[in-house]
Amino acid sequence: MHLDFALILTVLTLVTAVFWLIERYYFRRRQAHEEEPEGAHKTVEVVGSLFPVLLLVLVFRSFLFEPFKIPSGSMIPTLWIGDFIVVNKYAYGLRLPVLNSKILETGDPERGDVIVFRFPEDERVNYIKRVVGLPGDTITYRNKVLYINGEPVEQEPAGRWEGVGLNRNRPGTDPVKRLEYLTEDPHPVVIYPSRPNGRFESVTVPEGHYFVMGDNRDQSLDSRSWGFVPEENLVGKAVRIWMHWDCSRGCVDFSRIGDRIE
Prior knowledge:
The protein is α+β, with helices and mostly antiparallel strands.
């Protein structure tokens, strides 16, 4: 069962707003003329006092920044299981909470951005992947190399990938790390040379959609499997790691706190 935290927060904010209005414009005015029952007034006052706090949280979470936890290894080595990240909610437009309708244009995803989005096959679930294909691009993935519009994306060997803790390599695997140049600044990807390449036909990204992939290329459920991300499903751009939690390695890994996500 997936709890819609945005919906819960919005409902709580509206409920406390009603109590805040009652306390401010009903009880206070009546109290000037006659004494009110202490119990009723106190309850309304306490519940109404939560309204400014909840409103602040709602605005901050809906329009500015939102925290997320990384639950899987699909973005290794960029993001690890146990990372807690901050997502910039205004990078790709301001959207109303719950309705998710855009009210202000602020920008579009660029190739190489790490984005959070509502999974097209179950919009109650948030996914995080890297944008590799923009509208109009033709994407091919062959022999563990990404092709964009017929041109291979440069890769540079960067040694073995040595995972640790929750992110340790599975027994019998020998993953390698490569630097991939989607932009001028490369990002790392993990490849399992012994794994079959699989089949993936070339596709052209339709308007208003994006093609995304995980940096852990052989262990990622992404656009190669389920298709494109619609623009209306975008949640925001992942920008920083604010905590890493792995109790197989002493719980908090302070070395990752504050790292930029690139």
